[in-house]
Amino acid sequence: MKLLYVLVLLALCRSAAGSIEGMKRLYSDMFGNYSTKIRPVYNQSQHVDVHSRFNLVAITEVDQVRQILHSNMWMNLTWRDEFLTWNPEDYSGIKSIHPPLTDIWRPKLIVPVSVEDRDVFKDETSSITVYSDGRVTWLPGANFVTDCKLDLTLFPFDVQTCQFRFLPVSYDSNGLQMVSSLITANTQEYTENGEWILSASRAYTTERFVVESRFSFLYVAIDLERRPMFFVLNVILPVVVLSFLNIFVFSLPCDCGEKVSYAITCLLALTVFMSIVSELLPKSSDNIPMVTLYLTCLLGISVLSVVTTIFIVMKDPAKVNKKNPQSALFMIPRFCSVPFPGSRRRVMDQVHLDSKTNGSAGSGNPTGKVLEGRSISVGYCVTADSLCMVIFTVLWMVVSVGFLVHITQ
Q: Is 13 a domain residue?
């Protein structure tokens, strides 16, 4: 039994020694005259096909003010190196090796839309594998900080499209061709973002002229759909409620002393929410968000209501003579089908003079006195508060419904 263990151990040691010797000979034969400056094809008139697969890991941040996309990704790049082929049987059955990145030819890719360093694949610890048939697989990864033009017209119900571009800067299309292995980005390892939903992606290659040379580009476009509930519940809904409460300033009597202060309080609240929204939006005038126009209209309605309230309080006849109620602007006849808010006016059907005082009865009322008698309701007196409340309610509904219709389309 001991002899059997010794024989197995000797066989394993011989196999390990053979593998080590085979690996040394393989590296010596493959990289003895190898140059990283020469494209890995014997016929230098042919181009190298680099097959790529874009793997998106996470969307870490979308900076709406600076219009910058922060993302985490890695790529799977594969090409064939004709200088690195061998027969595994000649080298102890070795079918693949992992040479240092600096010892092998690699396509140098840059990201033209990057706002930081364009050469983003600088990680020397990324994996690279060379197989016996010459196939090379490189897995570089990086945290991207790229430019992303945002169209915030429908904010916060918008869908943004951000694009990644990869350019092999060392060679034009005659020396190197980018080939997309997938028609979409690989999202199997993607981590969901709390603010954005990755709705779709596209991957393709195309050729473009750069400084009078034709280069092969790899394009990866992703569609990001915003999750709007946070903004709706924390900004839009409070603004709509505050703007609706602002209309009820015209239901307060002028002598309560809180009419103007109530209107100014609503105006200040809307102003605060406008400042919150302005911090979330980019400092650009290319496309103004509809929510900004909507909040501006609500702010304008609030300003008009404050000014109107001040004029109503200034013209209040109760300040001059507290016995007189607020004077009516005009009267709407009683036969209207829809009741109009306002003070109900009664016209007396029995008007006469005091016969004992004047000595005779008449059909007129030269003294202007109205005696009590049976009254007939003939209409409604419309005051300034009642008229303004209807006007501002209609204006608020038109602005709000127009905003909702435009956003839902």
A: no
* Same domain? 305 vs 195: no
Which residue is associated with the tokens 């969901």? 192
75: containing domain: 33-227
Domain count, the chain: 3
What pLDDT, in 10s, does the model give residues 181-234? 999 999 999 999 999 999 999 999 999 988 788 999 999 999 999 999 988 888
Cα separation, 91 vs 19, in Å, equals 7
Residues 64, 108, single domain; the answer is yes
The residue with tokens 């981590």 is 191
Q: Please report, for the domain that includes residue 115, its CATH number.
A: 2.70.170.10
Report the alpha-carbon distance of residue 136 to residue 174 in Å, rounded: 20
Structure tokens at 248: 């009820």
What are φ and ψ of residue 295, in 5° steps?
A: -65, -35
pLDDT in tens, 252-286: 887 777 888 888 988 888 888 878 877 777 666 67
Structure tokens at 138: 């490189």
Whether 189 and 97 map to the same domain: the answer is yes
- If asked whether residues 294 and 243 sit together in one domain, one would say yes
In a domain, 47, yes or no: yes
Does residue 274 or residue 241 have the better pLDDT?
A: 241
Query: Residue 4 falls within a domain, yes or no?
Result: no
On whether both 204 and 334 belong to a single domain, the answer is no
Cα–Cα distance between 118 and 80 in angstroms, integer? 26
Spell out the long-range contacts of 363-372 with Cβ–Cβ below 8 A and sequence spacing 24 or more. Answer: 372/348
| Phi and psi angles of residue 135, each rounded to the nearest 5 degrees, phi first | -75, 130
Residues 346 and 314 in one domain: no
CA distance 323 to 344: 18
Token couple for 303: 């300003």
Angle, CA of 45, 51 and 52, to the nearest 5°? 135
Q: What residues contact 60, with CB distance under 8 A and at least 6 apart?
A: 70, 71, 72, 143, 193
Any bridge partners for residue 136, and if so which? 79, 130
Among 176, 171, 166, 177, CA closest to 144: 166
- DSSP 8-state class, residue 195: S
> Which of 306-310, 375-379, 393-397 is the least confident region?
375-379
Residue for token pair 């903004």: 231
Claim to verify: residue 216 and residue 250 sit in the same structural domain: no
